[in-house]
Each structure stands twice: as structure tokens, then as C-alpha cells.
Amino acid sequence: MIGDVSDMAARLAQLLPTGWFADEAPNLAALLNGLGQGWANIYTLLQQARAQLRIATASGVFLDIAGQDYLGAALPRRPGEADAAFSTRLRAALLAPRATRAALSTALTVLTGRTPVIFEPRNPGDTGGYNLNAGYNSAGGYGSLAMPYQFLLTAYRPNALPASHAGGYGIGPGGYGVAPMAYSSAAELAGNVSDAEIYQTIAGFIPTSSIAWTRLTN
């Protein structure tokens, strides 16, 4: 394989003058393998360093550094989150559209796996209107011209994790062997989405001049 000890030793052997050594030279082979090990280590280090230059191939702490460089504290790694998952979130955040209703809805759907409910009091598409081909109370709610650049947002917490709906220790209504109380390990909480992350996503995707009256629910 390119860059391993055998490859490096063979490359060094090709540089030796023809006829200086026998075809079978154990001592020479040992020396070349020793030198080849050093060059193989350098080659491996260079490959690792090269991988850290791109977010798509970076790993470990270098991926965290890239996140800090591009997004500051806006997108930290979640507890127990793997490199592949964090890299995917980071690249998606860099290229995601912002400052529109559709962008906010998409961002929250990707984050939580559940589509939020957005209601704009000044948007007839949300409020409906009189003398339209629709029944009473069939639209989202009453409109209001007194709420410019504001909207009501219902965001949902994710429910895909095993411990999402389990009660905490000493918290009812569950009990020993009775739902919604259950034992869970740290592995089940890895990558969990916190309320703070949901709020942070909302703040990062709405227009600067707007206000999102937000309700979080399960």
C-alpha cells in the first residue's frame, strides 16, 4: 500500500547503486525497513494533517476548531456526538438559507425531525378572512395589524430518542417498571437536542428585525 513501511523501504532500495549489494541482504533489508518506518510515520502524519484542512474530512478537535472558526459558539458539538454527525450539521449550517419563513421551518424540521407551526398575524394566508370560501374558525387564528414583523411559533422537541418521554428520577407519574420512567444510559442521550439549541436555531434563522413569540412543546 502506498505510504506503508514496505512501500517506503522499496523506494529507498531503488535509490541504491546497482550491484552494490546482493539480492538477498538481510542486514540491508532490516536497515531499509527501519528507515521506511520513519518515512511511513511522516506520510501518515501528512495525510492526517491534510484531512484537517477541509470540514468534510476533518475529525476530532480539528472539527471543533473549524466549527469555532466559522460559526463561533452558535453550533457546538453535542455531548457524545460523533464526528460524522457533527460534520454534517456544520456543513449544513454554513450553506443553509436564512431570514425567510421557509428557511426557519426547514432548519427546525432538520434539527428536531418535526415540522413547526408558524403563524403570522399580518399574513392573510395564515389568518384567513371574511367572505372567503372557507368555514368559520378554519384558519390559523385572528389576525392583527398591531404586530408588525412578529409571528407566533410553535416548535416541537424531538421524540426519536429512547429517553425522550421518560420521567426523571423521583418525578412522576411513572414508577419502578412503570412507564414513563425507565433506565437509560449516556449512549441513549448522545446527540440529544436541548431547548437552548432550538432557541439558538430560531434566533439564527429569523430576520434581525423580527420577533418570534415561541412556544416549545413535546
Give an overview in words.
The chain has 218 residues and is mainly alpha-helical. It has a domain at 98-158 and 193-218. Helices cover 42% and strands 8% of the residues. It contains eight helices and three strands; from the N terminus they run αααααβαβααβ. A three-stranded mixed sheet has the order 1-2-3, with helices on one face. Helix 1 crosses helix 2 (26-51). The two termini are 52 Å apart. The relative contact order is 0.11. The model has no long low-confidence stretch (mean pLDDT 86).
What labels would you give this structure?
mainly alpha; 218 residues; single chain; elongated; 3-stranded mixed beta sheet
Secondary-structure map with pairings?
Layout: H1 5-14, H2 26-51, H3 60-71, H4 83-95, H5 101-112, E1 117-119, H6 124-127, E2 150-156, H7 186-189, H8 195-205, E3 211-217
Parallel strand pairs: 2-3
Antiparallel strand pairs: 1-2
Lateral arrangement of strands in the main beta sheet: 1-2-3
- Integer average pLDDT: 86
Largest sheet, strands/sense/barrel:
3 strands, mixed
- The low-confidence parts are none
* Secondary-structure-derived class: mainly alpha
- 3D shape: elongated
Helix/strand order, N-terminal first: HHHHHEHEHHE
Quaternary form:
single chain
| Spatial extent as radius of gyration | 29 Å
Q: Give the helix level as a range of percent.
A: 40-55%
Overall strand count: 3
Question: Total number of helical segments?
Answer: 8
Distance linking N and C termini: 52 Å
Strand content: 5-15%
Describe the structure concisely for a colleague:
With 218 residues, the protein is mainly alpha-helical. The chain has helices spanning 5-14, 26-51, 60-71, 83-95, 101-112, 124-127, 186-189, 195-205, and strands at 117-119, 150-156, 211-217.
